[in-house]
Fold these 2 entries.
Entry 1:
Amino acid sequence: MAAKKFVYFFGPEGSEGNASMKNILGGKGANLAEMCNMEIPVPAGFTIATDMCTVYYKNDRNYPPELAEQVDENLKKVEEVMGKKFGDPENPLLLSVRSGARASMPGMMDTILNLGLNENTLQGLIKTESDTRFAWDSLRRFMQMYGNVVMGIKGEHFEHAISSLKDKYGIKNDLEMTVENLKELVESYKKIVKEQTCKEFPTDPKEQLWGAIDAVFGSWMNERAIVYRKMNGFSDDWGTAVNVQAMVFGNMGNDCATGVAFTRNPATGEHIFFGEYLINAQGEDVVAGIRTPQQITLAGSKKWAAEHNVSEEERASKYPSLEEYMPEVYENLCNIYKKLELHYRDMQDIEFTIENRKLWMLQTRNGKRTAAAAVKIAVDMVNEGLIETDDALLRVTPDQIDQLLHPQFVKESKKNAKLITKGLPASPGAGTGQIVFNAEDAAAWKANGLETILVRLETSPEDITGMVAANGILTGRGGMTSHAAVVARGMGKCCVSGCGGLNINVDEKTIKTGDLVLKEGDWISIDGSTGEVLLGKVATETPQFNDEFEKLMNWADNRRALKIRTNADTPRDASTARRFGAQGIGLCRTEHMFFEGDRIKAVREMILADDLEGRKAALAKLIGHQRGDFYAILKEMQGLPVTIRLLDPPLHEFLPSEPQQIKEMAEIMGCSEEKINDKIKALHEINPMLGLRGCRLGITRPEITEMQTRAIIEAACELTKEGIKVFPEIMVPLVGNVQEFKYQEKIIRETAAKVFEEKGINVEFLVGTMIEVPRGALTADEIAEHAEFFSFGTNDLTQMCLGYSRDDANKFIYDYIDKGILEKNPFRSIDQTGVGQLVEIAARRGKKARPNIKLGVCGEHGGDPASIDFFHRCGLQYVSCSPYRVPIARLAAAQAAINNDVVRQIKQTAEDAYSKAESTAKDVYAKAGTVAKDAYSKAESGLKNLKETLENSEELKKGVEGAKKIFNDIKDKFKKD
Ligand code: ADP
Ligand code: MG
Ligand code: MG
């Protein structure tokens, strides 16, 4: 049996790999191979596959014997192509050794350049007298890099040697070091290596090479790399590849250079070639900041000069663009970048080196970009005919949309600010203000035109007005699903929660951390996207929606199947959400209306009342307020559906808890403190979230349901009379038993009928329920006989299905995630395997009992992209999320539709099969030699035909449509059974 292939060659005559082989060759290796296949000049080399990394760790960090053979074979090929020999003192081949996993990964090993150098081989670099310095400088750089990266010697030892040498000779700038100085430095480097490792610096090029290969594989399991993988959910099994490549030199004189560039501006997305280079430099000098890099384009250079107050004369003489300095090379580079962009159909981030005016490409990859650039590039590329709208929709992540919607710190301003501490990034965006320690102050300061950040240990519903007034919220306790976090996200207000590093004293109105003490009125700034808390005032800016953004969202709207509604409790939220494209309100929580102004008084009166009469009298004070709220919200939504949930939370939430507040309340209500305390005791529950709440309230106190229904229907009648369209959907919460629903439904329908009669008008409305108790989900068929819609309350459903208290889960959930017990927080992204079953079952049984039942989701998960994909697959009709997440959900829903598109999947599979077949055929060709040439070319033309058929065939499309229909029929049948 032939030995397994671990090493893949790439070079000007073509490569054994290609861009589709990222899993085997790593991103860097696959793209180097692809560029060679495209006849772009790349120094020859080879890639040791990622499989080797896995084998290496399985074998206790040993290689199978065939690896050395394959490396030698390929090294020989590189020598042939480059016309140099590894280790040859006359004409030495030097190598770079570069790591490269599937995805670019900081934390992996740094690249080693100039490998193969020693005091012998460096002679071969010296073609003329003037090369001597370059040769010695290359050697000392190599020793420094190798010593640090491979031998593990701290960089500071080498730095120290340089600075003492400079001191000794009074040298200021590295470039002033003479050949003699550099020779002396090499000697001291040798000593350092000996002292630090008790070994000599390896002079044998082969030994150097294997040392470097070991180091790359070794770096896969270093701490930084492991942490990074964990953070990004990359698997340890991927492994890294090792790229060994012939060196080219950008530092051999003034007709040499090195640079990096983006095919479009990565910050703005503008279709402008954008990059920097340095004359006579090597490797990462451009990004290292030792010398001022120059702009590649003339336009870029002029812009740079203007920004840095550099005169045109100085610019042209000292910092010319590559376009001016080497016009032919520049033109060549432009042709290549255009070719690459066209080929990859995405913005590329490229690295290159110019050796004696010859351009070599060293890397290309899809470039990282800001959110704004992602949107612009995606839309531009559709307009340019490079990609389809579906591709564009997949190019922008929902997170990027999120970034675009929130205020951000002005970069320059943030750079200068001092970081105090970090908490959890609970609600994205940036805010700055003077600190206040309670909600009343936040509101009062705002009324005086002041900007505030509300600092609390944790927040409660009573803090809402303060949260609205403040520019941001900072809490000492609580996690990502704490009250502060959830409410802040709902408002689109930035919030940093769980700042354990701050000692917050609300009574003294101080924050302490280390030596720092902040008082009320001091300025701080918080970044809810990162969790950073900064000292002082940092400038913020709000991004604007531009045409590209609107266009992309438009495509998303046309593509998605799910409708997007919003959770909104106020007309203001409703109007924000409509601006963001909401198609209705999926959850309007009436209890939030109970806290505002003096309403809380009436609510408390109702709770304190001894009998039905007393309760009714208190409710009579509330009905006007409620009707007004519903009137405003229904009016704002102009006939779009508005799901209004009847009172849900346990009543104790409306009563005060602090003695001072109790005293105040007693005064206002004109009763004794004792009476209030008694009532609080009476209402106390051990497990309030499983206690007297939801429809249980409306069943034990039907007058509440009656009052709320009346308020809704009266508002609806009033608006209808005014000629304004309305569509209320009244929702009964926490139903687990059809009898509960029937009892509430009867009150609702009877009340509505009464109002219609009084007003002499009829208004269409629905009565439905939330599915949030597991029993409700399981008996959905019974409930659907009566309920006209289901809205999945996935927060409570998760809480009850998993048995995790939403309010206390933070105490263990992050441990669970750390220890791999949970993959993610089930309160943020729905647990598809567990809770998901309840959703599926309820949807299926609900539809069976009532085929036209409306199905939607409200709750945190409605704004989470992974959950949205799941709800799309469950066949729900809409998701509802907080106003600021509406655009995110619109894009996520479109992506769900694209990613689950059967036609697309089949096409993709066919294309993958095609490219596999193609590369196998190539492989066979390479191995079989001339005899099989004929067979190969036949196979190739066969493949071409197949590809054309794939691209053009209406037949195939029809076939796919047919398959899809059959597939759906089977699915439906399956569901019915
Ligand atoms: P990173 O992953 O950090 O970008 P690279 O492997 O791309 O690391 O190497 C960094 C830089 O080293 C390259 O941009 C290039 O300037 C230089 N380099 C790498 N390989 C070679 C080579 N064969 N010849 C010349 N320079 C090289
Ligand atoms: Mg690097
Ligand atoms: Mg690179």
Entry 2:
Amino acid sequence: MDYANIIFAVEERVATLTINRPDRLNALNPQTMEEIGDCIGAIHGNREIRCVIITGSGDKAFIAGADITAMVTMSGFEEKAFAATGLDVLRRFEQLPIPVIAAVNGYALGGGTELALACDLIVASDNARFGLPEIKLGIIPGFGGTQRLPRRIGLLRAREMIYTGDMIDAQTAFDYGLVNHVYPAAELMDECRVLAAKLARQAPLAMQQAKTAINAGIEIDLDNALRFETESVGLVFTTEDKKEGMTAFLEKREPRFRGV
Ligand code: CAA
């Protein structure tokens, strides 16, 4: 598929989506958001894809936020529509039935941190910087940052980041529990591909149920969440892949999962 602002490639069951506006530090304008949305649709419709990596072009930025050039002339109503598109696109990432890895290769600011927060795992280069600097522009985060960041790193740290607009470095993000791993910049993509390949080898229906159980359960009370998990376990026990996984263990061989 050809897009103006993103590069989309699929290799060995792993899709890589690269925001490709390096001269704008991969800032998200309305067209880029639409293209990402279109890509998510393509990923959703392709059962061969088992994991997604999202990253930014160049060695400086993952995504430096929503495009300020595009936003400066937006009215409140236009911004609400843009924010609604952003929220929808991020929600659809969250709800993909496969895991999504954010490979944060530099600045992840505003919408960049917000997009990373909607991914399953965040892996950062040692030169990555995270932040929600919207307050410095006289606005507030509009792609879910005020909600997902406190849920991820706790109220006190999130308040400080949102109220000051200051960036944190990769090591601090790791200490806050915001990122899974930090690697030297030159190793980031190789490490993400290794991780993605590992996830892509797992039983797809079990992966889907695990993701759904985590995402749904974290929003509700524990008793209902545990009931949800029990239902999910029941479902995965009906799959061919359950038979294959357990049989392969007993036969001391690698399982061949087929997603059925
Ligand atoms: N929107 C539009 N253009 C941007 C941009 C953005 N978010 N971020 C960077 N750029 C542009 C710069 O204007 C610059 O363009 P020119 O070459 O034409 O001058 C180019 O990208 C390179 O950037 P800098 O020269 O500024 O690079 P730097 O190394 O000096 O600084 C930076 C890097 C600290 C990331 C700085 O660019 C910056 O602070 N960017 C803005 C970050 C920001 O405020 N993001 C939040 C946006 S609001 C938002 O995201 C709302 C939401 O919740 C969805």
